[in-house]
Design goal:
33% helix, alpha/beta, FAD/NAD(P)-binding domain, 2 domains, six-stranded mixed β-sheet
Length: 549
């Protein structure tokens, strides 16, 4: 029964992934990114210091972790550092290591630097020149304290201090490379700490950022093996000795290197891994971003003896997503508005304005439901089209700016059911008509009273739901996975016996231990993007020390 349930989840989630538009579409063409999933021969799955203060997680045992036999290398090259992934983590690690006098070699399945980082819009920073100029008083110590409390002291305090303490310097490091920020702002209820990237008229902010960082890498003459997958870490006498890489033609390249940095982007598009590691009960999930995040870094790290951090299944859930709506579209902005959210029992399950303050918390609430729906009325869609959203949606859905395409985008989706008869709509999606009728009546009564005694939704968002009704099937969107290889304060990988694995580093979404069960957007917006760049830099700095440079 459990196996059947898993297969049903995978089918539905893959369908919803294909029906929507990913972030990668915003800049993939000009960055030369390709959708290059793992080959059958690469893994057993066809689907696509000091140790920290927390224990290693139980090791997964399914065949998705198996690395198949590889043929003998057709070519061997040398490098000081072999870097897996050319996104934010890998590019930052490569630039920093080159600046320190090392020779890096980057391996990425795309055609240029960029990776899934092009889907980000800004990064967390504390005590930066931007925050100081904005009058923000948040300190490194206070930021660390807030996040450790939020995550119940699961993360390593020293790692947080190294990470947060470097963010101010990193902002200036990025700017010195010719990459620019536009502003520093709050996100939801956060402090003013989200450094939004500048953007060109033709691209997304993350695309502009990685275009600049990639240019810096090329200008420094950094070597890269594009169109290839890292497959296996070579270990000798308990130390890293290199990396085996599979090129597009199937040939194997051996990189002899005493250091490997894992930065392949996590496992967002490996659905088998998502359902094995996470606790998601929702049958509909939607991965946003590049289709190259298959868990390769975790697979290779585990094969090399690395432990997984506590909560390896932590995912950056981002909440309601009308299935089929494109990222950043008016239809997507309609998904997250504080209308009426219900589950498979046709019941409310949270305060629907939760997303506006903390999208990760909204995603966690939806994660725990089997199926989810958004219900609103004709008055709501009229407001979206003519006046704009109730609440802001990142950099693209602004209050007071009409979402002129909301109606036409949603009308064309098979997952959006429109009509005057609520009972008929309920039957179309498999909900109990009587239960839905009662939920709507109860909710409208709370709206009339102006007091949400059930979930304490803010009064200004308590609007009656009246026909014609729009009943929308919802997937739980997620931007990236946040769990992975256990690292210490120097981002060195930790073995299953609690020892440092000499020469192995992990960063970005390949590393875990930064979070508990949820992303901390309400305190550190853009912390995962910031972690990608900062962990890449930390890996390079500490690798240089390891190599005696």
């Amino acid at each position: 029964m459990e196996e059947k349930k898993m297969q049903e989840k995978k089918t539905v989630s893959r369908r919803s992934f294909l029906q929507g538009a990913s972030v990668a579409a915003l800049g993939a063409a000009s960055l030369g990114l390709t959708a290059c999933g793992p080959s059958e021969s690469a893994t057993g799955s066809a689907s696509s210091g000091s140790a920290g203060s927390t224990p290693a997680a139980a090791e997964p045992v399914s065949d998705i972790w198996t690395i198949a036999e590889l043929p003998e290398p057709a070519e061997t090259v040398q490098a000081d550092i072999a870097i897996v992934g050319g996104g934010g983590t890998g590019t930052a690690a490569a630039i920093q290591s080159k600046q320190l006098g090392l020779e890096p070699l980057v391996v990425d399945c795309g055609n240029d630097f960029g990776g899934s980082f092009i889907g980000t819009e800004g990064m967390f920073g504390v005590e930066t020149h931007w925050t100081k100029e904005a009058g923000e008083t948040l300190t490194v110590s206070k930021a660390v304290d807030q996040c450790l409390i939020y995550h119940h002291w699961i993360p390593n305090h020293e790692l947080y201090m190294n990470f947060f303490g470097q963010t101010g310097e990193t902002v200036e490091w990025v700017e010195a490379l010719g990459v620019h920020y536009a502003d520093v702002v709050s996100l939801g209820i956060s402090d003013v700490a989200w450094h939004v990237y500048a953007r060109t008229d033709k691209s997304s902010p993350g695309h502009t950022f990685m275009e600049g960082l990639g240019k810096a890498a090329h200008d420094l003459g950094i070597n890269a093996e594009f169109g290839a997958f890292a497959r296996k870490i070579v270990m000798e006498d308990g130390k890293v000795a290199g990396l085996l890489v599979e090129r597009r033609d199937g040939s194997i390249l051996k990189i002899e290197a005493p250091v490997v940095v894992l930065g392949s982007g996590g496992y967002s598009t490996n659905e088998a891994m998502i359902y094995e590691l996470s606790n998601s009960a929702n049958e509909n999930i939607f991965s946003v971003g590049a289709e190259t995040r298959n868990g390769d870094g975790l697979i290779m790290g585990k094969d090399a003896g690395a432990a997984f951090a506590e909560s390896p299944g932590t995912v950056m859930w981002c909440g309601p997503w009308i299935i089929g709506a494109g990222w950043g579209s008016d239809g997507y902005c309609s998904s997250v508005q504080p209308t009426l959210w219900i589950n498979e029992q046709a019941e409310r399950f949270c305060n629907e304005d939760l997303w506006l303050d903390d999208f990760a918390a909204a995603g966690m609430a939806i994660r725990n439901q089997k199926r989810t729906y958004v219900l609103f009325g004709e008055k709501d869609i009229d407001k979206f089209v003519n006046e704009g959203p109730y609440g802001p949606v990142f950099t693209f859905g602004q209050v007071g700016v009409p979402m002129v395409n909301a109606r036409t985008e949603l009308e064309g989706l098979p997952t959006v059911h429109i009509g005057d008869d609520l009972a008929v709509l309920a039957q179309e999606v498999g909900l109990d008509p009587a239960a839905l009728k009662k939920t709507v009546e109860d909710y409208n009564a709370l709206c009339d009273s102006g007091n949400d005694t059930a979930f304490l939704k803010k009064p200004e968002y308590m609007n009656r739901v009246e026909g014609p009704y729009w009943l929308c099937e919802i997937a739980n969107g997620y931007y990236t996975t946040c769990g992975g290889v256990k690292v210490n304060a120097n981002v060195e990988a930790i073995s299953t016996t609690g020892e440092v694995i000499p020469g192995l580093y992990a960063g970005g979404s390949d590393a875990g231990g930064l979070y508990g069960d949820s992303y901390d957007v309400c305190f550190a917006p853009g912390s995962q993007a910031s972690w990608a760049i900062n962990s890449g830099r930390l890996a390079a700095k500490n690798a240089a020390k390891y190599l005696g440079k």
